[in-house]
Every structure is written in structure tokens, then in C-alpha cells.
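pinned: reference chain
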Amino acid sequence: QVNLVQSGGGLVQAGASMRLSCTASARTFRTNAMGWFRQAPGKEREFVAAIVWSRRDSPYYAVSVRGRFTISGESAKNTVDLQMNSLKPEDTAVYYCAGLSGYDDFDPGLALWYDYWGQGTQVTVSS
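pinned: its C-alpha cells
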């Protein structure tokens, strides 16, 4: 069984920075990509960022976070971090780490491709 364990999150003021981290519990488990999604109250889960190991560690970002958020990680360790800068109140949501394996042709921005999910962590940005 593979578990994605998240850390980070909390309450910050607008303009502040925050870092989220995620690690897969199984050392022998290998992902093709890892990413972050978020879900605000009353809204659907949406894509935030992903990093695709099989595409030379290419990063992908939602338009809403591009230029403010940075995704990084290590495929060998199955770890992924999300550095969030210049946070806005509209970034408030529960953030989920996700892992994808077993696929070569996929859209990293679509949640349906991901097999494994973290427990979620609340990020609240006050105005």
C-alpha cells in the first residue's frame, strides 16, 4: 500500500509564503509524475501544479498560480514540494498531493489520471 504523506499548511496573511511537502511512504514505489490539487469550499477540486519525471522533470502550472508557485521534487525519493509565494485569499483551500504511475501518455492537469492521494492540508490566506 502506498501512502502520500503531506506536511505544511496553516494560516498566513496575503502576500506571505508557504511551503508544502509530500512524500510517498513506499520506497520501492515509483511514480511517473506527482502533483498538487486544491479544493475550496463549495468548489470542485482543481489542478495547481505537477512535475513529470518522465518528461525530464517538466513542471506544469495552473494559470492562476503561474509565476507565484514553484513545484520541485526528487523522483528517486518520490518527494514533491510546492513553494507558494505572494499568496492571495483566493488560494485558500485544502491542498492535496497526488501521485501517478503506470501511464506514459497522460495529462498531468487532470485528477483522473492520479492513482494516489495525500490526506489533504488546509491552507488559509487572510486578507
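why pinned: The mean pLDDT is 94. The longest strand covers residues 93-100.
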